[in-house]
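Can't attach files on this board, so I'm pasting raw text. These are the components:
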Amino acid sequence: MRNEMGSFVAADNTKCTGCKACEMACFAVHNQGNHVGNTVGTVELPITARLYVTRAEELCMPVQCRHCDNSPCLNSCTAGAIRREEEKIIIDEDKCIGCKNCMMACPFGAIELVPVYRAGKEVLLPGSTEVRKTASKCDLCVKRGIPACVNACPNQALSLVTPEAELADKRIQAALALALTNQA
Amino acid sequence: MTVIAIDKELCTGCQECTKVCPAYAIEGEPGQPQTINTDRCVMCGQCVQKCKAYLSVWEHGKEAYEAKKRERGLPQSVREPLFAAYNVCHLNELKDALADPEKYTVVQAAPAVRVGIAEDFGMELGTLAPGKLAAALRRLGFDKVYDANFAADLTIMEEGTELVQRVKDGGVLPMFTSCCPAWVTFMERNYPEISDHLSSCKSPQQMGGAVFKSYGAHLDDVDGSRVYSVAVMPCTCKEFECNRVEMRDSGWKDVDVAITTRELAYLLKEKGIDFNSLPEEEFDMPLGDYTGAGAIFGVTGGVMEAAIRTGYELITGEAIPDVKVEAVRGTEGFRTANVKVGDLTLKVGIVTGLKNVIPVIEDMKAGRLDLHFIEVMTCPEGCVSGGGQPKLLMDTLVPEAYGKRRAGLFAHDEALPLRKSHDNPAIKKIYEEFLEKPNGNIAHHLLHTKYCGD
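---
Top answer:
Structure tokens for the assembled complex are below.
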């Protein structure tokens, strides 16, 4: 059996300037169903991104879901709203009950509880004036190929990490380095 | 007056704006809020377009969002995100004027507005919508919906004539265009010694304003003092330009307020006007009549192309063989072309992106530049990419957006029955009835100015 690991988006804090272009791109591509078009003027709902540009002392970088292989969020979900799909951890917003178990379980703070919007309007709970909420996190732009945040970064600080490829690369480098010492 | 500002509470200090600022006007330490050095800022608004540091309703609260809207002069109905870099909104003055029955409100919209405005209503990038634009302005209650494209044709008559005179009479060359107020400001501050190279022509916006309050008021049988003149522009610097002391030759402030394409979208949404479902309407005649030459003012190289179409005929007495002057099109930051005009080889240069003008000026001062006429636009691809245009959510869309907005204006030019400014019947009429001749006395008083004045 192949040991397949989940890919994830990782940031390089030496390149990140904290501009939030990644957050804006994330919001834009996930809200096309809310009438968000190409321009700021088409936006009629608050910005919610699925990654968080975070400042800590002197550094800044976005923090986002690692699509953990042991996925504590999935394990903690009592509503069956989180699933694994081709090594991606995906939240079903229709099934989410807003219990925040996953939020608490995630060691990265990568899950946020946000109001649900459909067709640009807040969705209310049945028979209530309260806004329905859902857990929300990075879905690796599952329908889009390269994640929007990776494309949007003006400083190439974000990359889609594929752990197997990353490891294979590192081992080749290690082997080449070792070969040099053996020759000497 | 403050035109462009950076909100200290929102700025993350990422300094992405400093990379696009052509005037090195943004100052501060990385990671700390930046400030604008107003002595350097040319108010082009490229930082406004770039900034992604938004106010988060979750983090800062709804109250903070509402307070910022008030502080920036934005309508209550605005729901879009607010960013650290912004331009001060002047819609309140415009709304007061529209509500005042004593005022006779006249509006003009720049070429680039008609390929921008629909984007803020969810239409495709670069959608060409002159008919809906005219209808939208009429629904807002303007008494006359005139057009900056007419004024662009007028600018070509004046600027083309000025160029031909300079070439024939051995005047100061190269002559630089003066349509772009950010470029004019940059030259005044940094290179006042070359000010005699600048065309004495006012920009289309200011020519339009001066004509609306004089000839236009006469045509409409109203006193010029009652006319309130509004410009809708892709540009944040136009509000600065209309407040310049030189711009009062009609006897009043020629343009009372300039708003941006984005601000027009705010106003339409506040009034509940659904842009996309508006019918196609015409601009009001005669000062809303225009040719393809006026329409291409919104793209880099467009003023040059329009000037060549008319200049050719002024010099040779014959129509230009091909109105499409391919040699001056393109988007490179500085490009040159030789255009055969009868016996004369007209040597022209086009600068787009203000930073690119510095080596050109230095070459000129060192005697290394052999050109007759140079167009300069501050923004990356001309006015279609102006600081007041609809702001893209993702910069990855920039090439597509600018390309489609440019293509939209070129398509507009091609589809119009008349494509040379001097063929515009309203232009012929205004010279016959009022201005007498290009660069004549009345034209000189109303349509020209001296920049870098004392």
